[in-house]
Design goal:
Length: 284
């Protein structure tokens, strides 16, 4: 009987147990600090549903999802204050890394990357964070909150100085000055071969965080703080495929700020699902 039914509530082809999986998908339905347009808490499930519209095979990577082992734990059960919520994200992420599995996290808003990277810090100490985003997210505090999504990379900078920011085209004067003063690798363009060569030379574990608003609002309208003059989906993929050269160094990635209530024809969710598929096929 069961063979006549499918479970669309998980990412496509996610049929491995936690124990046997090399990569763990989990979503973090948190958008509590989003000041402009909340809704990213629904992002993870939108990405899962959208994944069923994709093929499991990637012609670019010549690999199929049936060849890789991943498990979808679905939504993290979050409760309490922001600090308590971050403690849950931190401890779950640390356990996944401790079990020698790769992190595949779906936001939620961008602030959720901080407790994940705290877990990375616990395990690896010295590591690189590559960020694709329209915003530098380097504010020390936003609306009285140091854990706001607008502050996430400032908090991450306290954990590792190896930050590489790509696609950045928005931020306040103080953030840009902070980046300049501290020699943060901040580029308005996407990552190219030279950037990758430099990252490769550092020879450190890599965590990748993708804020979907790095794309132009035309390509990703379903997000809380869309920023014009962004990149096309094809440009972003061209940059992401460069990561294949360092795939063994990548310990996990997240895709954040997908907000289905502002999406049009699921463009943003489908794009996020394809990013997830390609990165999974690359690193697992
Ligand atoms: Mn961001
Ligand atoms: Mn952003």
């Amino acid at each position: 009987m069961e063979e006549h039914f499918i479970d669309l509530s998980k990412f496509i082809m996610a049929n491995c147990s936690y124990k046997d999986a090399d990569g763990i998908i989990y979503s973090i339905p948190y958008d509590g600090t989003t000041s402009f347009k909340p809704g990213a808490r629904e992002g993870g499930n939108a990405i899962r549903t959208a994944s069923w519209g994709l093929e499991t095979y990637s012609p670019i990577l010549d690999r199929d999802l049936s060849e890789v082992k991943y498990c979808d734990l679905k939504e993290l059960d979050l409760y309490g204050s922001q600090v308590e919520i971050f403690n849950i994200i931190h401890s779950v992420s640390r356990e996944i890394l401790k079990d020698n599995k790769k992190i595949i996290a779906f936001g939620g808003e961008h602030s959720i990357t901080y407790p994940i990277i705290k877990a990375v810090k616990d395990i690896y100490d010295d590591f690189i964070v590559i960020q694709f985003d329209a915003h530098c997210d380097l504010r020390d505090e936003y609306l009285g909150n140091k854990l706001s999504h607008a502050c996430v990379m400032r908090r991450v900078y306290e954990l590792t100085k190896n930050i590489f920011q790509f696609g950045i085209r928005s931020g306040d004067k103080e953030e840009w000055e902070f980046a300049k003063k501290n020699n943060i690798y901040l580029k308005m363009d996407l990552m190219n071969e030279d950037d990758l060569e430099y990252i490769k030379c550092l020879n450190k574990p890599i965590y990748v965080t993708i804020d979907i608003d790095v794309l132009d609002p035309a390509y990703a309208p379903g997000t809380g703080t869309p920023e014009p003059c962004g990149f096309s989906t094809k440009e972003l993929f061209k940059s992401l495929y460069l990561l294949e050269e360092v795939k063994d160094k990548i310990i996990g990635f997240d895709i954040v700020e997908v907000s289905p209530i502002y999406d049009i024809a699921n463009i943003t969710a489908i794009t996020a699902a394809k990013i997830a598929r390609e990165l999974m096929l690359m690193i697992l």
